[in-house]
Amino acid sequence: MEKLQKRKVSIKAELFIFTKEFISVPKKAVMAEVIDKQIIASLPLLGREEKESILSVIKSYLHLKAEVGRVSVTQYNKELEAAEKRIDAGKFITQEDVEKEATLW
């Protein structure tokens, strides 16, 4: 129990230092550096399960970042027009049909 309380106090102290540094830093590059340092400093305070959880979140962000890129307004409009043409041609499924189909799963 005492170890857990020390850990909580240590995490609160780290959070306070991080917040203080984060608020006082004006430039994005420097803020990223401060965040990197705080993450590295906080890792030893975490247990294995917590580290695995954080790693999972990081991997999911990296996967999404690699998978989903920003599209241009032109590309967005082309995709929107294509979708509208499919709807006008009757190539869509209603919510009710999806719900009926889902009951068969």
Account of the 3D structure:
The protein folds into 2 domains: 45 residues; 44 residues. It has 105 residues and is mainly α. The radius of gyration is 24 Å and the shape is elongated. The termini are far apart. Helix 1 packs antiparallel against helix 2.
Offer a few descriptive terms.
105 residues, 5 helices, 2 domains, mainly alpha
Range of strand content: under 5%
Are there runs of 5+ residues with pLDDT below 50, and where? none
Alpha plus pi helix count: 5
How would you sum up the global shape?
A: elongated
- The residue-averaged pLDDT reads 80
* N-C termini distance: 48 Å
| Helical coverage, percent range | over 70%
Brief sketch in words of this structure:
This protein is about 80% helix and about 0% strand.
Write the layout of secondary structure elements.
Blueprint lengths: L1 H23 L3 H15 L5 H20 L5 H16 L6 H9 L2
